[in-house]
Design a protein that fits this description.
With about 150 residues, the chain is α+β, with helices and mostly antiparallel strands. It folds into two domains: about 30 residues; about 120 residues, Immunoglobulins (Immunoglobulin-like, Sandwich). Helices cover about 20% and strands about 35% of the residues. It is built from two helices and eight strands. The strands form two sheets. A four-stranded antiparallel sheet has the order 1-2-6-5. A four-stranded antiparallel sheet has the order 4-3-7-8, with no helix packed on it. The N and C termini lie far apart (about 70 Å). The relative contact order is 0.21.
Length: about 150
């Protein structure tokens, strides 16, 4: 009886942990995102222009949920952005405290980031960026990610 009382709780906790990990793995397998397009706020000649009138210089990213699960807590995603060899983590606007750079989001074709829905991420800068090759990586709150290189 002593051995049973000592071993059973440990086995029970271990099986609960395995079930929890299996659920997270299943979620990651069913989740997938793809950066489908990235561009800056440029005019027809490739010059920076505040085309949306918000007073910022913006980079726009469209990220599609190409998995089989709904993605939640969008503002807890990580966005890394910068020149090829010089990128940094950009905070979401709710965490940035009004500082630059920061990113905001909106769903383009749904009310939740469900499969087939496209998320528009806007990275706001206080001044125009230079012409160069840029890197962006988006990591959803559950750990799935995609990265993309593009030139402006």
């Amino acid at each position: 009886m002593f051995v049973f009382n000592a071993v059973y709780p440990a086995v029970s906790r271990s099986s609960g942990a395995i079930v929890s990990v299996a659920g997270k793995v299943d979620d990651r397998i069913k989740s997938q995102i793809r950066i489908v397009h990235a561009t800056g706020e440029l005019d027809g000649y490739g010059n920076w222009q505040d085309t949306d009138g918000d007073g910022d210089f913006d980079v726009f990213l469209w990220v599609k949920n190409v998995g089989a699960s709904r993605l939640v807590a969008i503002e807890e995603s990580d966005v890394f952005f910068g020149k090829e060899a010089d990128f940094v983590r950009i905070p979401c606007e709710v965490d940035a405290g009004g500082s630059f750079p920061r990113w905001s989001w909106q769903l383009e074709n749904d009310t939740e980031w469900k499969p087939t829905a496209t998320l528009k991420l806007t990275i706001h800068f206080s001044s125009a960026l230079g012409s160069d090759t840029y890197f962006v990586k988006v990591i959803a709150s559950n750990g799935v990610s995609d990265e993309h290189f593009f030139s402006m």
